[in-house]
Amino acid sequence: FLARVDSSGTFEWGVAPPSTVGSGQFTLGHGNAMGLDADGNVYVVGNEGGTLDWGNGVVTGSGTISDNSMALLSFDSTGLPRWGLQGGSTHSDILYDLAVAPDGVAHFVGITSDPFTLGPYTVDPVNARGTVVARVDPEVSTGQFAGTVIDEGMIALPSVFTDGFLLTGPALSNATSVSVALQDAAGRVVEHANGVGDALGRELAPGAYTVLVRSGARLLRTRVVKV
């Protein structure tokens, strides 16, 4: 379970992994498996068997208790689930330490014996075991961009110099504070950039993609099809 107490030791809230016989279980990583960001949001990493519904629309894992995966979860300062990111391999991965920066960017390390997938990335161990080191940006890797989505004020135009596209529109500004994420049809982040001055999607395979741009409090969205 996960619990919070104040500086005087007074209990504030507690969260226990949901569990139904035969449906799923969650086990914290072996090392420092918890972290906090500057806003008091809590992050935990661990192994999972089967499917778990944490509430507030956050569901991780799949199948029954014998189906292995890993999960990185975040709860707000009141214990409410914010998001969950799942991955791992079909083997029993070993998750160890988690480190969380003030802005919520998280790093974790673990060991796998089979191809380990997290989002669009896969680590395939050459020998019997391999080490996994992952970086997770909560506003990009989990798709949890804050703000109301605006489906206007931005368009994608083919680049005449590359096999990619450029973003333009009155709502955009070419500044490093602008964060761009491209998601494939499965919702996985396949490209990330700061600013919109360069062509995007040059290395992507043909297909349909969603483009999300965060600039301050604005969250812009458009869709592109690469042929």
Name a few traits of the molecule:
single chain; 227 residues; mainly beta; 6-stranded antiparallel sheet; 5-stranded mixed sheet; 20 strands
- Main pleated sheet: 6 strands, antiparallel
Order of helices and strands: EEEEEEEEEEEEEEEEEEEE
Estimated helix fraction: under 10%
Uncertain spans: none
- Described by the principal axes of the CA atoms, the overall outline is globular
Q: In what range is the share of β-strand residues?
A: over 45%
Helix segment tally:
0
Radius of gyration: 19 Å
End-to-end CA span: 48 Å
Structural class: mainly beta
Number of strands: 20
Question: What's the mean pLDDT score?
Answer: 81
What would your notes on this structure say?
- By secondary structure, the chain is mostly beta strands.
- It has no helices and 20 strands.
- It has strands spanning 2-5, 11-15, 24-28, 34-36, 42-55, 58-61, 68-75, 81-87, 94-100, 106-112, 116-118, 121-123, 130-136, 149-150, 155-158, 165-168, 179-183, 189-194, 207-215, 218-226.
- The strands form 6 sheets. Strands 3, 4, 5, 6, 7 and 8 form a 6-stranded antiparallel beta sheet that branches. It has a 5-stranded mixed beta sheet with strand order 14-20-19-17-18, with no helix packed on it.
- A hairpin with a 5-residue loop joins strand 4 (34-36) and strand 5.
- The chain is globular, with a radius of gyration of 19 Å.
- It starts with a strand and ends with a strand.
